[in-house]
Amino acid sequence: MDKPTLPRIYLSPPHMSGEELELVKEAFATNWIAPLGPHVDAFETEVAECAGVAHATALSSGTAAIHLALRLLGLKPGEEVLCSTFTFSASANPIMYEGGRPVFIDSEPTSWNLDPELLREELDACATRGKLPRAVISVDLYGQCADYKAILESCARYEVPVIQDSAESLGASYRGRPAGGQGCVGVFSFNGNKIITSSGGGMLVSDDAQLTDRARFLATQARDPAPHYQHSAIGFNYRMSNVLAGIGRAQLRALPDRIAARRRNFEHYQRALGSVPGIEFMPLAPHGSGNFWLTCITIDPVQFGASREDVRLVLEAHNIESRPVWKPLHLQPVFAGCRARGGEFAASVFERGLCLPSGSSLTTPQVDQICELVLATPQHIAAARP
């Protein structure tokens, strides 16, 4: 008889609150199914309030928000944009959409985010060459903010705008202020694996109404105000639907509970694994509070007795999803030939880093099981040796 398959434990699955269906039914009942409507308007207002900014534009994805931000800031073909290297490719892909050239900046050990000192060095070097970048894209990695005081000081010196990629960090904070409002433009993602989801979607936020209004115009195919279809600019089909905005609104109401649950996961993992030789956790930066989107560890195979990949495969054998941390963008084939400043630190974290299941619906027995399997991996490896 076949052994029954245990239900899969996913890395970061959607977690519905129960209110989503009512707001979706409302969209259907009022026939607001198009990419506009009262849920979209309300979601924009509510996310802006959550981020501590004045304005927001709801979009089809966080990637679309970064793309529009670069278009709004006037990126031209051949111009450079400085970007965190330790991130998902969506942070840098829009640079290529516009014909720009990414320059990747390494991370610092305090938060694994963009290294302000290396950023300053690169900006100084760019100024010496007489070719400043069009913008800086700073990523708030795995739910916690980069050090914006230092980043913004360096960028202000050369009047280089900062796009804050907070796709993973809704609900986090930096020096007492919500994440997303530190740069001239902020970006959030509501992809299915994020701390809250609208199934798919994103948000561009800013205190500058001209930027968010222009983003809304470009995201709606850049249709001019005329009774017929008239276009004087190239636009995009990037607006969020009213149905998905309804899901997002219900999810946003549950955000404090989702952050609390993921913090509990992190603390549970830390109690069980924090004193184990060879295992270290992603550091918590002193300049803010994270949303604990994913719990990440690094594994020293010599001290622990097993590698990051050994642990991942043991978990996978028990139908538990874990995943290596982001492969730095300066190491990605698609960005071969792009300049980078540093990169060794992010590369070393990638070689040893693992994201553990972190969903807000995880149960205590499930976290216990994951920890037991992690701790047992060296014995599995030793037993498998000839």
Strand content: 5-15%
Strand order of the largest sheet: 1-9-8-5-4-2-3-14
Number of contiguous helices:
13
Termini separation comes to 30 Å
Order of helices and strands: HHEHEHEHEHEEEEEHHHEEEHHEEHEH
Provide mean pLDDT, rounded: 96
Looking at the structure, the CATH topology of the largest domain is Aspartate Aminotransferase, domain 2
Largest sheet: 8 strands, mixed
Rg computed from alpha carbons, rounded to a whole number of angstroms: 22 Å
Shape: globular
Low-confidence stretches: none
Number of strands: 15
CATH class of the largest domain: Alpha Beta
**The CATH architecture of the largest domain:** 3-Layer(aba) Sandwich
User: Please, how many domains?
Assistant: 2
Percent of residues in helices comes to 25-40%
Output the CATH homologous superfamily of the largest domain. Type I PLP-dependent aspartate aminotransferase-like (Major domain)
Structural class, judged by helices and strands? Answer: alpha/beta
